[in-house]
UniProtKB/TrEMBL annotation:
Record protein name field: Rho guanine nucleotide exchange factor 39
SMART domains to which the protein is assigned, alphabetical: PH, RhoGEF
Region (Disordered): 354-427
Residue ranges of every copy of the DH domain listed in the record: 26-201
Length: 427
């Protein structure tokens, strides 16, 4: 009885045909979800443009500039997505997004204007009674499905994030030999840029709110925290250790990307500032070095040392995890700040024209040429002078003519005078 062993295929390993079938199934499922979600998205865009943008324009309830600040480019986005939906329903994913991506600037302008849109809408709802009544009547329509305008305005931002996920899934499940692969790859790059812009704007807005919150916590207006390029990192209570070993005092610290703010609580009896903090000192992180004094082991608490240009600060906490987080945050902030300053310094050095260096090099070249010429002159003069010492000068010539030749070889500079004087001594 002959036995022919069959090849053993490990679990989870598929053949080429099976892998392609899995890719095709995933691609179809992703495409189906994309088409269905695009249909719902276009319906909501149509509700906004029809029952708000167009009717507000016809009624004149809001001025044109106010309408543009609230709705921005949402009408253009609706038109572009209607064209995209037609391609997607026909299964032309690559061609559809290839024509869609050149119009992403409508989404970019909408993303950049989104915070302004929210603020303008809130102001109009507070001050404009006619618009407030109009908004309430429109939202009562069945087409809105109990959704408010505030819920519909962020839809383009959310859709860009969904496009980013759909396009990545489609690209991963499309064969590189497929003509749509290059089109989908280009769409992934273009949509990812807009998605990153949305995330950056959201982080910037959140950072701005944090700066405003801390600014309101501090008493008075001497400390201005709202500065361009400044980022909020963390805050918390830490104990400061005085250098003379007296009792530690709890202080409130706010860590930003370029400064560390120390504050203390105001008196609770104060009529207006009882819930605020008084800023005591602002430490720049530009020239700061941080060291961990203790807290390396699993002991209770820790102590870190901050050394600035004119002062040294010791901060202590009974919570070791908290002090370790402060240490890491400070190290990261200082490292990024120093790296940024180093890069700027190198660029300045590269852009600065080396005027002094060029002048110095020219002077050194000129001086070296003078020295070489003087050496050549001195090398030729001893032969003549040695010949003069061995025989008697002819009539009509005197020692004075020889001294004139030596003087003509001298230069008026200080260094050349010294060197020529030494040559005269040798002679």
């Amino acid at each position: 009885m002959s036995f022919c062993p069959s090849p053993c295929v490990p679990a989870g390993v598929y053949s080429v045909e099976e892998q392609r079938e899995r890719w095709d199934r995933k691609r179809k499922r992703t495409g189906r979800e994309l088409v269905q979600s695009e249909q719902r998205y276009c319906e909501k865009l149509d509700v906004i443009t029809t029952y708000f943008v167009e009717i507000l324009k016809a009624k004149g309830t809001l001025r044109q500039d106010i309408r543009e600040r609230i709705f921005s480019s949402i009408k253009s986005i609706h038109l572009v997505n209607q064209t995209l939906l037609a391609h997607l329903e026909n299964g032309n994913f690559g061609a559809g997004f290839d024509q869609f991506c050149p119009h992403l600037h409508f989404y970019t302008s909408y993303v950049d204007n989104f915070q302004t849109s929210k603020k303008t809408l809130a102001v109009q709802l507070k001050k404009n009674k006619a618009f407030r009544r109009f908004k309430k009547l429109q939202e009562a329509r069945p087409e809105f499905r109990k959704q408010k305008l505030e819920d519909l305005l962020p839809l383009p931002l959310e859709r860009i994030q969904q496009y980013n996920n759909f396009l990545r899934d489609l690209t991963e499940n499309t064969s590189p030999d497929n003509p749509e692969f290059q089109q989908l790859s280009r769409a992934v790059s273009a949509v990812s840029e807009v998605a990153q812009r949305i995330q950056h704007n959201a982080r910037s807005h959140e950072n701005h709110l944090q700066l405003q919150r801390v600014q309101k916590l501090l008493k008075g207006r001497k400390t201005r925290l709202l500065a361009p390029g400044r980022w909020y990192i963390r805050e918390g209570w830490l104990k400061t250790v005085p250098p003379k070993g007296t009792e530690t005092k709890p202080k409130m610290f706010f860590l930003f990307s370029d400064i560390l703010v120390q504050a203390k609580r105001c008196s609770l009896m104060h009529p207006t500032n009882g819930d605020k903090l008084a800023c005591q000192r602002v430490y720049p992180l530009k020239e700061c070095t941080v060291d961990k004094v203790f807290g390396h082991t699993k002991s209770q608490g820790g102590l870190i040392s901050l050394t600035f240009s004119k002062v040294k600060l010791l901060l202590m906490s009974s919570d070791q995890e908290d002090i370790n987080d402060w240490y890491r945050s400070l190290c990261l902030a200082i490292g990024k700040l120093k790296t940024k300053n180093t890069v700027v310094h190198r660029r300045e050095e590269l852009l600065r024209p080396p005027l002094r260096a060029a002048t110095h090099s020219q002077q050194s070249v000129a001086a070296s040429s003078q020295i070489h010429s003087r050496k050549r002159a001195l090398a030729s003069e001893p032969e003549t002078e040695s010949g003069m010492s061995n025989h008697i000068l002819p009539a009509g010539e005197s020692v004075g003519s020889t001294s004139k030749k030596i003087k003509f070889s001298e230069t008026p500079s200080g260094r050349s005078q010294e060197s020529s004087g030494s040559s005269c001594v040798i002679l």
